Amino acid sequence: MKAFLALLAFLQGAGAHVERVAIPGPDASVLDAALVRPTEPATAPSIVALHGCGGPFSARDGQWTLALAKAGHVVLLPDSFGSRGLGSQCGLTARAVKPEGLRRLDAIAAAQWLQSAPGVPAGGIDLMGWSNGGSTVLEVARAGRDLPDRLFERFVAFYPGCPTKIEDAGWQPVGPMLILMGEEDDWTPAAPCHDLARRFPAQITMIAYPGAYHDFDAPDRPVRVRENAATASGGQAHVGTNEPARMDALARVPAWLEQR
Questions:
Q1: Residue 13's domain spans which residues?
Q2: How do strand 177-182 and strand 204-209 relate by DSSP bridges?
Q3: What is the DSSP letter of 173?
């Protein structure tokens, strides 16, 4: 919950039009979420944005929310962990809330709630996420699952885990997808995502930034070795800002979302 409250405070401090909302969850839970609206009436598709394994990351997630709201998007950020009384999951290998399970269902519930919210443009929702949230984007985008038709139109995944999708011959995205990651990422390596993009060249656009690591788009975070990266090899991974990659992503993502 602390991470979610920090995100709210960040957005409020930046002057965003933010509201704390409650969304019925898939397991009788109630999801805390931040709803951010543009200053002017929304002119672009609405977005559900999914945090990483540490929960809402105010500096990174807030930065993106402000940029997307400025571009005319309504943005909804549900908290899958704090809403269930959970803290950071980064140091755990056995997690109760997983991309293929509750997080996927949370994303669908959030999008359905958002479609009925006042002031939200009609039509499909775009979905984006970082790390564990990016892996959830891949799970939600799976064709042939119990996904409401046309609920989501476009998918943006920052440094997701792609190995299980490479091993799954039945995985295929239901819509256009943009994957962005650091070429040097040693937490969620880029190579499997390259393979996935090569399998679906008409549907997946893959951007890998040379010299960049996990969390490359988080502002003002010097690269360091993180010790409690449970799902990384040896439990350690490099994380931190790559400023050229961050700036490119901030320009690239809104432009890609405009392609319809």
A1: 2-257
A2: parallel
A3: B
CATH number, residue 9: 3.40.50.1820
| pTM of the model as a whole | 0.97
Q: Quote the strand ranges of 113-215, DSSP E.
A: 125-130, 152-158, 177-182, 204-209
User: What are the φ and ψ backbone dihedral angles of 254, each rounded to 5 degrees?
Assistant: -60, -40
DSSP 232: S
Note the Cα 205 to chain centre separation in Å. Answer: 16
What Rg do the C-alpha atoms of the chain give, in angstroms? 17
Cα separation, 248 vs 252, whole angstroms:
6
CA distance 152 to 147: 9
- For 174-213, the pLDDT digits (tens) are 999 999 999 999 999 999 999 999 999 999 999 999 999 9
Buried b (16+ CB within 10 A) or exposed e, 70-86: ebbbbbbbbbbbbbbeb
Q: Name the residue among 24, 23, 68 with its Cα closest to residue 47.
A: 68
- The total domain count for the chain is 1
The two most distant CA atoms of the chain are separated, in Å, by 48
* 52: β partners: 55
